Amino acid sequence: DDPDHVWRVLPVLLISGILMARLWYVAFTWDGYKDYIFSIGNPTHAGAIEIWRGGIAIQGAVLGGLLGTLGYGYFWNRSQARKQSSKPPFNIWRFADFVAPGLVLAQGMGRWGNFMNNEAYGRETKYGWGIKIPCEFRTSGATPGTNDTLCPIAQSPQYGTPTAGIDQNALFHPTFFYESIWDYTCFLVLFYCVMKPKTVERRFKIKLRDGDIFLLYWVIYSIGRFFVEGLRIDSLYFGGNNSGLRSAQVTALVAIFVAAFLLIYRHRKDFPPMQRLSMRLAPVGVAAGTAASIALPDQLTEEEAETETDEDEDTAAEATADAEDGGDELDVIEQDLDSDVDTDIEPVEEAEDINEVESSNLKAEVTELADEGETKLNKLDVIAMSETSGGNDDDKSGKSGESDTKDSGHDSHGDDNSGTGDGASGNDPDSDSEDEAAETRKS
Predict the structure, then answer these.
(1) Helices 4-28 & 92-116 angle (0-180, nearest 10)
(2) Which of 176, 153, 330, 144 is nearest to 241 (CA)?
(3) How far is C-alpha 109 from the chain's CA centre?
(4) CB contact set of 223 (below 8 Å; sequence gap of 6+)
(5) 46, CA 20 to 30 Å: which among 145, 245, 363, 418?
(6) 23-37, 73-87, 336-350, 361-375: which range is least confident on average?
């Protein structure tokens, strides 16, 4: 909503609230003011318009502020309708929700002024949290609705016994403190509902709408006010009867029933989403624009409405065309990405294939070399075995030659030499074959 409404309605709200607070007090004490309506400066009795001499009621102030705000909203919306302005209309329910938490917080703070002035206290009590009221600030019962709580006046013996009264050390109920604590509690409840509307909807299954905070304020505040007023001894009685309910209690009962009825009645069926309290968390521009779009058609002529409908259709067609063009562009981009990915993947796949071929070739070569080595070793073993068997035969033939030479004689020395030469020549082939076999194994 337009934040300037706060500054525009503030003077109206203050003036109407103060005037209604005074009228409310005078109306419930009419017998005391009916002869002094236009009296000013009377030293013995305050006139009806002499507000500075005391006598106002908070319930009348709240009602006056509400009436002033209603009047402002009515004339503002009419003027904007005549101008066919695009600004959103003034929402009285939403503005009341905006004011309610701060109002009850101010009431709780204001009650401490009663403590400073030694006023608005309750009847006598024996509890330890009671407060003492000095004798000069106690009520005498002369004002309508008040009780006599004066201190006893000690007189001289010649004048008789002291007058009746309440002892100067007596304790009284701090009703201002009771109401202050209740107001702070009411503020916390309202503030929680304003800041956590979605949590309230989820836990209590209630969708808060515009005006619910203000109505809830009336219900909660009036319940506490009704019980606190029952303890006070200086507030106004309803109808001038000092034995009945006080005027504030009657007002509280009416406020409870009216506000509760409106809460139930306004939730009997579903309501537009823009009236939900949770929508207030949206940005100001968005909420104002949406509210303007909702409220504007009621203020347009048929021709303007048709023109806006055509413009909306053209805008929708353009948006559809843009969406289709964007979809085609996305398809082209996806194809380009797919081709780039394929070109990046192909070299990698080729390199993997080459590595697999090379590794298989190396394995084959290693296997072939191992087989060749085993074949050569087998051949060498066969050669060595054959050479070993040949050397043993030569040794046997040499020994037989030696025995023959020994047996044939001693005929000539040349035969012995020749026999010895044969034996020598028979040993040389064995050594040569062993050397060749050793070199072959080393290689």
Answers:
(1) 50
(2) 144
(3) 30
(4) 252, 256
(5) 245
(6) 336-350
For residue 42, give the amino acid letter.
N
DSSP codes, 258-305? HHHHHHHHHTSS---GGGBGGGGGS-HHHHHHHHHHHHGGGGS-HHHH
Grouping H, G, I as helix, E, B as strand and the rest as coil, residue 369 is helix
**CA neighbor of 281 nearest in space, from 214, 199, 206:** 199
The values of phi and psi at residue 232, to 5°, are -75, 155
Sign of CA dihedral 140, 24, 59, 117: negative
Task: List the one residue out of 95, 99, 103 whose CA is nearest residue 72.
Answer: 95
**Structure-block tokens of residue 45:** 């009795």
Question: What predicted TM-score, i.e. pTM, was given to this entire model?
Answer: 0.58
pLDDT, residue 291, reads: 42
Average pLDDT score over residue span 216-239: 89
**pLDDT digit string, tens, across residues 273-295:** 656 665 555 444 444 444 444 44
Is the four-CA dihedral 2, 281, 96, 108 of positive or negative sign?
A: negative
Question: Tokens 């024996």 identify what position?
Answer: 126
Which residues contact residue 39 at a Cβ distance below 8 angstroms, ignoring those fewer than 6 apart?
45, 46, 47, 48, 50
Q: Which residues, including other chains, have CB under 8 Å from residue 237's CB and lie 6 or more apart? A: 144, 145, 244, 245, 246, 247
Residues 39-81: pLDDT tens digits?
Answer: 888 888 888 888 888 788 888 999 999 999 999 999 999 998 8
Taking the CA atoms of the chain, what radius of gyration do you get in angstroms?
Answer: 58
